[in-house]
Amino acid sequence: xxxxxxxxxxxxxVQELSLFHRWPVRTPRPVVKKLVPHNPLVTGQRVVDTxxxxxxxxxxxxxxxxxxxxxxxxxxxxxxSDAHIIVYIGCGERGNExxxxxxxxxxxxxxxxxxxxxxxTVLIANTSNMPVAAREASVYTGITIAEYFRDMGLNxxxxxxxxxxxxxxxxxxxxRLEEMPGEEGYPAYLPSRIADFYERAGRTKCLGRDGRxxxxxxxxxxxxxxxxxxxxxxxxxxxxxxxxWSLEDQLAFERHFPAIGWLSSYSLYxxxxxxxxxxxxxxxxxxxxxxxxxxxxxEAELKELVRLVxxxxxxxxxxxxxxxxxxxREDFLHQSAFDxxxxxxxxxxxxxxxxxxxxxxxxxxxxxxxRVPLRQLLDLPVRERISRMRHVPEDGxxxxxxxxxxxxxxxxxxxxxxxxxxx
Length: 423
Fold this sequence. Notes:
15% strand, 15 helices, alpha/beta
């Protein structure tokens, strides 16, 4: 279908404009060149943005067993990430999950634009009861639509849920074509197909004289049988993506969401993004993140020791580490998708939340070195306020400075009381 009378003059002559655009979905759309990504895809999820960030134009994978929250993570990223366009591919998913998206997204407001989220969302609905050929083509259709918007100079994010269903469709089609099977019956070209899919992501200089720069981020969920990370789909994916969010069923059973394991996950974009965080958020961002990860790793070592000899055998400094990491896990990493104040957290608030927890740790550590009893430091009234800091509104960040003043004041009072008792 063509628009009557609408023409564009180009170097090749006059071209009529139409209401559609033809492109073979398995062929990547051309770009001038790929650029190094340097801005984060801000998701509002604290464990992602602070510890394992993904860049605009980056790639990430979310493998995990059934019930660990892969779809919930995908929905949260689709709702709150700061991309201009979200392409959500429901590849082989249950129909009720796609129905939830259709019912929920129109009622949610984009925190960046203030408009309904549905206005920037493209849904590729390919449920489990549809033909396998359609399932195999749905992933290519989604990423080609994303490339179309990227070529306009927009930031686009693709949520593929899940690539395991896509791989199973390839396996079934390969079997019907009587092709030589590879590992676990998957076709031998499975790794190359997965690599080709993720390689279509990136920050690119688009075609055109105005030098538009667009980004295409790809986040794929993987559903390995029984949560087995040695599954061929998981291994082929890990070879090409740069962010690995490891979902753990134990965290999900403990109702800790997002259930991303902080000891097994990783991001390879820290070096690319550190200048952005230092200049746009806080100069101490990287130091705060590194200190927190060090404490969490130390906690894992201490837990093994506690299982053997008990918590009473630990030094006051080690027991303080366990108390601080408990606050990091419960007050910072744990985030409710159904709480209006907690579902989305801006970077400035994320930094202040973690900064307050570490300030309390440092102040208590100095007090312990001055022989202040640990039990007095664990009963500080400010700890209750820290446990509720997720509900501090975005325009009330000054409350975090007040918390730091309370920390210093209350720790100093405990130190004076202890000295008075000794005298």
